[in-house]
Amino acid sequence: MASRDIAVGAPLGDLVRTIAELRAHCPWMGALTHESLVEYLLEEAYEVAETIETEGGDADLKSELGDVLLQVVLHARLAEERGAFDLDDVARSLNAKMIRRNPHVFRPDGSLQDSFPATVEEIVLTWDAVKKAEKPERGHGFDGVPGALPALARAQKLLDRAERAGLPTAAGVTGVDIPGTEEELGELLFGIVAAARAGGLDAERALRGALRRFQDSHGPVSPAS
């Protein structure tokens, strides 16, 4: 099937109707709020990641992706009930954004370009430029990096943003013997956390502090987000 011929069938509509009925007739489901769903959204996203990283298989992946989709449908239903937007609006907005942010593939009207010559580097630059134009109020290259991210994931994201802004990212790297594989790196990181714990230190809090100092040391950064 050609990519432009892909169509979403009835199952998604059936799911939306099922969730609407559950919201109306199930006391537990009816009591859910955007705020109470946050922990489930994070949990389900991590379970998808674990399934992929442990090669859990297609059946497990399908199930876990369904759990993430449930969170999206629930949040959209809650918004629809208060007259804000519905799942169709979410899909339309996302589709428009993907077309807008990928001009190397799409024309502004959504039709395909005649050719696709863009390199990965060009794609990243274009993506950043479009995002910057969409949100000019973001005056700092680190804006938009969620503060709720675990410290290690946040460190990776901040270093990526700094690199794309042309800032030095090698602070603290000098003298560190980095293992050659992710398995060995994982053991090293686990050993650091264990040693920190034995010494009465909180590794997560320590890294969050280091990240704050890293951000403060760079000051205003040309936005890439």
UniProtKB/TrEMBL annotation:
Signal peptide: none annotated. It holds the Pfam family MazG. Residues 33-106 form the NTP pyrophosphohydrolase MazG-like domain. SUPFAM superfamilies: all-alpha NTP pyrophosphatases. InterPro entries: MazG-like_dom, NTP-PPase_MazG-like_N, NTP_PyrPHydrolase_MazG. This is Nucleoside triphosphate pyrophosphohydrolase. It comes from Arthrobacter humicola.
